Amino acid sequence: MRNVLLFTALWLLVSLVGCSSTPPASVIDRLPVNKPSKIDHTSAKKPTTVIRPTYKAGDWRPDTYTVKKGDNLFSIGLEHGYYYKDIAQNNNIAPPYNIQVGQVLKLKSQKYNTSQPNSDGIEITSINTENNTASAASSPSVGAVNEPKALREPYSDEALKKPPPAAKVTSTITAEPTNKPTVDSKIEVKPTNESSEDIEWAWPTKGKVVANFNEVSNKGLDIAGTTGQPVNAAAAGKVIYSGSDLRGYGKLVIIKHNATYLSVYAHNSQILVKEGQQISIGQKIAEMGSSDSNAIKLHFEIRRLGQSVDPSKYLAAI
Question: What's the pLDDT at 16?
Answer without folding.
Answer: 56
